[in-house]
Amino acid sequence: MFQSPDVVWLNTSPSLQCFSQPLLSYLSHHMTIASWDYSQTEDEASPLSFAVMLLHDYLQSCTQPVHLIGHSTGGLLGLFYADRYPEKVKSLTLLAVGVDAAVNWHVHYYAHLPFSSRQQILRSMAYNLFGYHAEFTNKRLTQILRQDLNSSLSPHSLFQRLCVPRSSVPVPLMVCGSLDDIVVEIDDLCGWQLYLKEGDRLWKCPEGKHFFHFFQPQLVAEQVLHFWKSLHLSNSVSSSLKI
């Protein structure tokens, strides 16, 4: 029997999903977690609107609104979905999503592609995204990033970059980022301040780079759980006042 989850993790990259597992493991001790996975081949690239449609088909089976959480493009998908179907979303948590919400590591890759080889850029990105010096580790991460370019949902290409104008999000929102992220830099992260509603949160992880939720899973989980708990308490108080 299908058990309606409390939380849905939005995974738009099969190759990068491994970096979310430590965080999801911590969260699963407190909430019922489901992972919604999207993948595509290089020959069948689809627009974000198609992913939104597929996500909605899945969430139609849930008996109540859910907490959505996603990293980078997964968070962008959550934004698109929450804008269109706010009644299905209890809250939205964004990890490594700046106020220019479409910015991901692919943007930096394509910006450098006219000037360097694909392999050189990927090796450099692997170090900048993760910080590992070991040759074997960096080589493996380079392979993972290459797979991500070919199979993940991304709105960008060498010839086109998507920009998403921002406005307030119609559901409770938490935005998390790392102070040493080279993809979503601190100014882009803090740009969310202009759009936060009462009860929304902006949290800055002290370190961890672009995949801070992998390097600091317990710390991130604690912050996210505090946010969800605050929403539950707020809803309980509102219900009591209506009696």
UniProtKB/TrEMBL annotation:
Q: Which GO terms describe its molecular function?
A: hydrolase activity
SUPFAM superfamilies listed in its UniProt record: alpha/beta-Hydrolases
Q: Does the keyword Hydrolase apply?
A: yes
Q: Which UniProt keywords apply?
A: Hydrolase
Spell out where the chain crosses the membrane. none
Q: What Gene3D superfamilies does the annotation carry?
A: alpha/beta hydrolase
Record has Hydrolase as a keyword: yes
Task: Name the domain of life this protein comes from.
Answer: Bacteria
Indicate the segments forming the AB hydrolase-1 domain, all copies: 64-165
| Protein name (database record) | Alpha/beta fold hydrolase
